[in-house]
Amino acid sequence: MVDVLSQNEIDALLAALNSGEMDAEDLKKEEVTKKVRVYDFKRAVRFSKDHIRSLTRIHENFARYLTTYFSAQLRTFVQISVVQVEQLPYDEFIRSIPKMTILNIFEAEPLEGRMVMEVHPNIAYAMLDRMLGGQGVAPSKINNLTEIETIIMEKIFSRTFESLQEAWKTIIDISPRLEALETNPQFMQIVSPNETIALISLSTKIGETTGMINLCIPHVVIEPVMPRLSAHHWFVSQKKERIPEEVEMLEQRVSKAKLPIVAELGESSITIQEFLGLNVGDVISLSKPVGEGLHIKVGDKLKFIGSPGSVKDRLAIQLDEVVNEGAGEEYDE
């Protein structure tokens, strides 16, 4: 923050310059010295503030998708939100997580390299307890996973990568795939200790149990798509062109849509008393002359003018004229 001088300090500074106690050149040197910033090469800054904001937006969507997924799977109250997105060395991330935790190591083609989704044991065991019919309470003592528990955990978390794929779709189409599930951070070395990572921390609450889900994304993995994380790409990106397969599928679905078609013989207005007095054989006069074409509506829009008839003992109507868009007013009286 820039210091604001008071009037007395300004007067003292001018007096010192006039008396020769302070030289203007010395003052300039002090200003140059203040502009020097300390840079720690062990904590290289690879992600700009713009990148951090974009990662935050992406994983806020990811948190919403996860909330929906876990709420449906666990059938209980689940709340997940992004707490922080920061960059730090990989070694610092490893030292910050518990010695016993759930580490989902995954790849996301076409990106090259591995990433990690670390789930706090409290959250992971609460999910496991809920899936096995419990109340979703984490045990007081965390033990190693059995083979059955490991398989259940893998099934739970492998489905979360579908949410990650959906969240990243605005940047790149990825195919996340679970590679391994570890419980000891010391056995996991996906990048060098000094490699900068983006750490996305998600606050998670399942019932009464709270904990963190941390997503570790090495800079070297997402470096090819870093330009797409800029605000320019988010707000000025070109419209995505549909691939031919998508267009064909859309045309097939639209062609199967059913639309109501109504041929109106005419209209008439009668009173309630006349309506109550109708009997078999009574004739109601319509407003349309016999020789005038019938209005054929698709939905509620006038599209054709036609003539009534029959085909193979079935009522039918022949299309005589196509009504162009906006031309229906001349037929309305």
TrEMBL record:
The record's GO molecular-function terms, alphabetically, read: cytoskeletal motor activity
Q: Does the keyword Cell membrane apply?
A: yes
Checking CDD domains in the record gives:
FliM (cd17908)
Native organism: Paenibacillus algorifonticola
Give the UniProt keywords, A-Z: Bacterial flagellum, Cell membrane, Cell projection, Chemotaxis, Cilium, Flagellar rotation, Flagellum, Membrane
Q: Name one GO cellular component term.
A: plasma membrane
Where the record annotates domain Flagellar motor switch protein FliN-like C-terminal, the positions are: 252-323
Q: Which NCBIfam families match?
A: fliM_switch (TIGR01397)
Topology in the lipid bilayer is annotated as: Peripheral membrane protein
Q: Is Transferase one of the keywords? A: no
Q: Which family does it belong to?
A: Belongs to the FliM family.
Put simply, this protein is called Flagellar motor switch protein FliM
Task: List the Pfam families.
Answer: FliM, FliMN_C
Q: Which residues cross the membrane?
A: none
Write out the annotated subcellular location.
Bacterial flagellum basal body; Cell membrane
BP terms from Gene Ontology: bacterial-type flagellum-dependent swarming motility; positive chemotaxis
